[in-house]
Every structure is written in C-alpha cells, then in structure tokens.
Amino acid sequence: MDRGYFIAEIEACSGTMYRVAWSILRNEADVQDALQDAALKAWEKRDKLREEKYFRTWITRILINACYDTQRKRRHTVSMDEISEQAAVTSALDPTLAMALEALPEKLRLPLVLCYSEGMSYEEAAAALRIPVTTLRGRIHRGKNELRKELNAE
Question: How far is CA 103 from CA 1, 55, 90, 100, 151, in A?
Fold first, then answer.
C-alpha cells in the first residue's frame, strides 16, 4: 500500500472514524488522540492488511482499540463542557433520540452507530468489533429495544 492510497483512504474514512471515536470517548481531546494513534498504528502495520478492499473495517478496528487504550489511560469524570460538546456532535439527531442513544451501554450503542449512522453492513461492523454477526444482531436488537423503552417512557 503506497502513501497516496493510504492518505486517500484515511481521508475518505475520517468522518466515520471521528463519529466512532466520539461514540466511545465523548471528549474532543481524547478523540483527536485516538484518531492520531490509530492512523499511526495503521501506517506502521499497513503490510498486515491482506486485502485493501477491507481497509475501512481494518482501520475501524484499529481505532476502536486505540479508543479503548485512551480510556484505560484517562479515567475521568464528565465535565459540563464535554456534555455541551456531545450535544453539538449529536445535534443532527433528534435530541431525544440522541440522549437515549447516549444512555445506552457502549456494547449496545456502538453496533447501532456503526450500522445505522455509519452505514456499515452487519458483516463489516461485526468484523470491526471482532464479534460474530449473530452477536452483533443480538446487540442491535437489544439496543433497539432499550431505545424503544427509553423513548416510550418520556
């Protein structure tokens, strides 16, 4: 994989990568750190990607791992500034839906974000999360049910 192809693919995936990182970290500084770490790790390990058509899934998995690394490094409380940043990022969604989605546990929220917000197929999302497709489907089903409960309670 040459430098030009790598840069073009990273730029094509940048919006998706940002939203995935934000859904995990919910802090602008941490998101930027994770994005940089993921890009660096991907560049260093670019020879490990067997088929370039799976670049998006591969880079998403690297990013998710970088986000988890960032979380482990920085256990912190949520400040009021972060809540307002979060609201700005999710402003494209119905505010009630955005709040209900943010209330979901990460393992239910992330499959919904990958499949419905980012347009990944179930197979791509399952590969990115390193879970079987059946597990992904179960988490999406449970996530939708939790969203329904939350939205109907209001």
Answer: 40, 30, 13, 5, 11
